[in-house]
Amino acid sequence: MKKITLLLLSLSFFTSCKNQAQETPVALISNTETMTKETIYSFKVKDLSGKEFDFASLKGKKVLIVNTASKCGLTPQYKDLEAIYEKYKGKNFVIVGFPANNFASQEPGTSKEISQFCQLNYGVTFPMMEKVSVKGDDMCEVYKFLTQKSKNGLQDSEVEWNFQKYLINEKGELEKVIAPQVLPTDASIVDWINK
Q1: For the sheet containing 93-99, what is the strand order?
Q2: Comparing C-alpha atoms, which of 72, 62, 67, 38 is closest to residue 179?
Q3: pTM for this model (two decimals)
Q4: Between 151 and 18, where is the model more confident?
Q5: With left for phi above 0 and alpha for psi between -120 and 50, is residue 159 left, alpha or beta?
Q6: Distance (Å, rounded) from C-alpha 63 to C-alpha 47?
Q7: Is a pLDDT exceeding 80 seen at residue 2?
Q8: Cα separation of 105 and 32, whole Å?
């Protein structure tokens, strides 16, 4: 009788442990599923003319976000940015430019001056936002999302210089970070647009 009681107690203990082991992963899965990943769609900014620009209006489009400057050795990239925008804007693709003065004070202009410069020199027609900070203590919220893995779910990054590119997929998620020196017409970007 002692052996049977001991056997029943052992079985009860193993069943209890087995049930707890099975419950733990389920609890972890349900907690993970309730986490909501941030997307670019939660942000609203001002464009160069001072009008509100809501990223939610870009749902379903691929988006290239780039920090720009008017007095940089990479400034001629505006030409290539405009070229790919013109070529692919009808295929659910948009470019959003953010002038920034974070690197060697190469974007000192006002919104009006930046707008005139972009129009006169490069015929820019893609959306250009008001000047922001893309690094440091005064970094704008969009760039916090782009550079912090805890917000974008992909990776931590630092804006290295003017014309760094961030590729956002049709779901508003960060998909790729492209170095400033890589031209907008590079295969890594064009292939991403076309896939």
Answers
A1: 93-99, 62-68, 165-168, 174-178
A2: 67
A3: 0.82
A4: 151
A5: beta
A6: 16
A7: no
A8: 43
Closest CA to 177 of 150, 154, 195: 154
By percentage, how much of the chain surpasses pLDDT 90? Answer: 81
Closest by CA to 154, choosing from 167, 169, 173, is: 173
Helix (H) or strand (E) holding 177, with range, is strand 174-178
Burial profile 85-108: b = 16 or more Cβ within 10 angstroms, e = fewer: beebeeeebbbbbbbbbbbeebbe
Q: Rounded to an integer, what distance in angstroms lies between the CA atom of residue 58 and that of residue 105?
A: 31
Q: At what angle do helices 111-122 and 77-88 cross, to 10 degrees?
A: 80
- Residues with a catalytic annotation lie at 72
CB atoms within 10 A of CB 62: 20
| Cα–Cα distance for residue pair 166/180, rounded to 1 Å | 10
Q: For residue range 104-114, what is the model confidence (pLDDT) as tens digits?
A: 999 999 999 99
The span from the CA of 99 to the CA of 48, in Å, is 9
pLDDT in tens, 139-190: 999 999 999 999 999 999 999 999 999 999 999 999 999 999 999 999 999 9
Return the closest-CA partner of residue 172 out of 57, 28, 79: 57
99 three-state secondary structure? strand
d(Cα 174, Cα 152) in Å, to the nearest integer? 6
| β-strands 44-46, 52-54 pairing | antiparallel
Q: Residue 36 — left, alpha, or beta (φ > 0 → left; ψ -120 to 50 → alpha)?
A: beta
